[in-house]
Design goal:
Distance between the termini: 47 Å
Radius of gyration: 25 Å
Low-confidence stretches: 1-25, 208-216
Structural class: alpha+beta
Length: 411
Amino acid sequence: MKRVLSFFLAVMMFITVVPFVSAQSTFSDVPRNHWAYKEIQAMASKGIIKGYEDGKFRPNSLVTRAEFAKIMIAAAGVDIDKSKVSQTFQDVPKNHWAFYYVEYAKPYLTGYKSDTGNRYTYKPDQYAVREDIAVALVRLLGYDQKYQADLSVLKRFNDDNRVSPALRPYVALSIQTDLMKGSNNYYRPQDAITRAEAASLLFRALLDQKDDETKVVFPSPEKPNQELPTSVTDNFNSDDLKKWDTDKAIGTWEVVNNQVSAVTKDRKLEHFFLPLIWNEKANTDRFEMSVDVNADGTNGLGGLYFNGKNEKAHVVFFTKDRVILAKVDDVNDEDYDIIATSSYKLKSTNKLKIVVNKDNISIYINNQYLFGQQKLKLDGTELGLYLQKAATKDAPKKITTLDNFSFKLVR
């Protein structure tokens, strides 16, 4: 309950810029027939919402993303330690007024990542939009851990294609749990949030919740005491890619029809990596990994990578008539160093399996040994899925996809 109250207190920051000395129950610009009158007055009566010195609420004023970060800090009851914060976003330096709010509120916020995966921006002066609020409320209440997102609910709205791909599960959950609703068959995911809408959404999420002590679950992106897995399988039945470190991914990866692929808007980017979340501190020199590469209408150009470090990695992938083991040293360079190769006629579906035993690698295709390589220098622990830009250049008509992934350590 204490954290719920923290969120209420946070509402004051969210909907007040110049606070009045005391809370007031009515506002001259919020008449009784205002659509959010009930929500605004209910929160004002609890001393949570404060108006302006002129007695107005200014319900149509918009809220910036920087202001939204501040609200989420108060919501989570986070104590800020300014000595242990490094800069994540290029456009929120340490001298920005919202720097510490943004850094500490990241578990609840949306941000922007370049396709190369090495540059993040927050866009603090832009307005917070409805899909941002959906993410924050769903994660704050723990609904992303408690419920399974049903993406089909998005089809109720004529503008479902305007929902950002990575945010679709959260928006779906906001609809499923009645946290947020659309109007006239439109969800308006990219519409900026007004102060009145903020009051209404927070009222619905908190004051209207029953048994709120069991529903308010504060998310943690990483659980320090949780042991990371040493074996992972993924058939991509879920769109959220929870088993993958999408924050470190190179390229934009998405699940489509229970298969995963990647695209990019970066003209320079040539190689896509999707790193697996696994226990990299375990015995990492013996493991096996497999994936199905679906190349219907393409030349393949996809598979697996391992020994990843600093955007460099060994890769194993298909071409139209070969299987290649190579080293990628620059994700922006289409060239790669071929280490070994063997002839193979590409099929529509191709099962690739690699077995790493210290400095030796064995490569299997469709459960048959194809070739191997000895004395590879392995000093990186990152591994996962790999695609080349050319594998998806003709999307959506022709695209290489990956599915039926499996990984395990071998003792």
